[in-house]
Amino acid sequence: MDARDRLILALDVPSVAAAAAMVERLGDAVLFYKIGYQLAFAGGIPFAETLIRANKQVFLDLKLHDIGNTVAKGVESVARLGATFLTVHAYPQTMHAAVDARAGSSLRILAVTVLTSYDDADLAAAGYDFTVPELVAERAAQARDIGVDGLVCSAEEALNLRNNVVTPGMVLVTPGIRPAGAASGDQKRVMTPAAAIGAGANHLVIGRPILEAPDPKAAAEAIVAEIAAAGG
Ligand code: C5P
What we know:
Blueprint: H1 3-6, E1 7-10, H2 16-26, E2 32-35, H3 37-53, E3 57-64, H4 68-81, E4 85-89, H5 92-101, E5 108-112, H6 120-125, H7 132-146, E6 150-152, H8 155-164, E7 171-174, H9 193-198, E8 203-206, H10 208-211, H11 216-229
Parallel strand pairs: 1-2, 1-8, 2-3, 3-4, 4-5, 5-6, 6-7, 7-8
Helix pairs in contact: 4-5, 5-7
The structure holds cytidine-5'-monophosphate.
């Protein structure tokens, strides 16, 4: 895989106009874009179709979770858009429905095991009798057994998941990446692009280090060069 295909730019901007301006600025430096709640609910779905028509890949980070039938119908619609990745929460019913509904399309389902803002106390408050690492491992194994295409995980989790849980064909997509010297923002556990690739991540989701750079295109190109140098 080309190193450029490993970088996914988190298009965390408030409007389609801002997104289109950033995509224009980045040009060929970025081939893969993630659209989350902020942009998705501000015209981001039609914009995703525009990106796909322009030969970009799109990751819709919608973290679906509902009854199986509703998840399946939503996944079928996302598959028709031509998106590459879609996130769902790693509940067995939801994962089964999503995997069945994406059959025959090029859409790949990524499961979110445990949100990284959750600690053990948050899990206890939500009624779970698991620590975060236990629940991550349990849900990752369920995702594997159900045939989910990949996981969103922190770079810290990637090495263990890659070595001990997921099949070699499963994709690990890792946020919380900061090039050496970049501000970490609200990310508490960060890794460099090279370290994340070394830990077994296939794709890196990166937002602010590129969006807020004085020259976003140069920042993206530097990250791609670091991924390539790390053997990605
Ligand atoms: O700006 P930054 O590089 O921190 O953006 C990271 C992106 O990855 C954001 O879109 C954020 O929502 C997403 N993300 C994350 N941590 C997770 C899962 C997703 O930062 N555990």
